[in-house]
Amino acid sequence: MLAGRFQVGFSLPLTVKDITTALDLSTALGLTPEVSQACVRVCEAALGEGNPDQSEIARYLAKVTGVDLTR
Question: How many Å apart are CA 14 and CA 29, to the nearest integer?
Answer without folding.
Answer: 23
